[in-house]
Sequence to fold (117 residues):
Amino acid sequence: MNAHTTFPLTEARRRLFEFSDQVQFPGQTLTFTQNGKPKVVMVSSDEYDSLIETLEILHDHPDILQSVEKSRKEYKAGKFITLDQLCANLQRTHQQASRKTDRSSSRKRSTARTSRA
Fold:
């Protein structure tokens, strides 16, 4: 849950260390006002880093929100597979790739023997 609290900027001077401890909880934000208008916002360093990272992702992948919305709709419509199904699919794919590699290696060895003879 995001908690947002507002204090006058003069209060920040007196209680800076208390406020810096208070914002260490996830979602905790403090706004400091001057003459009743927002002037400064305080969040933890971790929260700030998370916000910057989110902005960078949104900038680098502008279509990500549409992709998330599409995924939500597909999930609601039952268009998904479980983790167990995914693991089984990956295992089958791995086994098929291994068989192809084994057959290819066998052909190469057979060709090499034939060309030496």
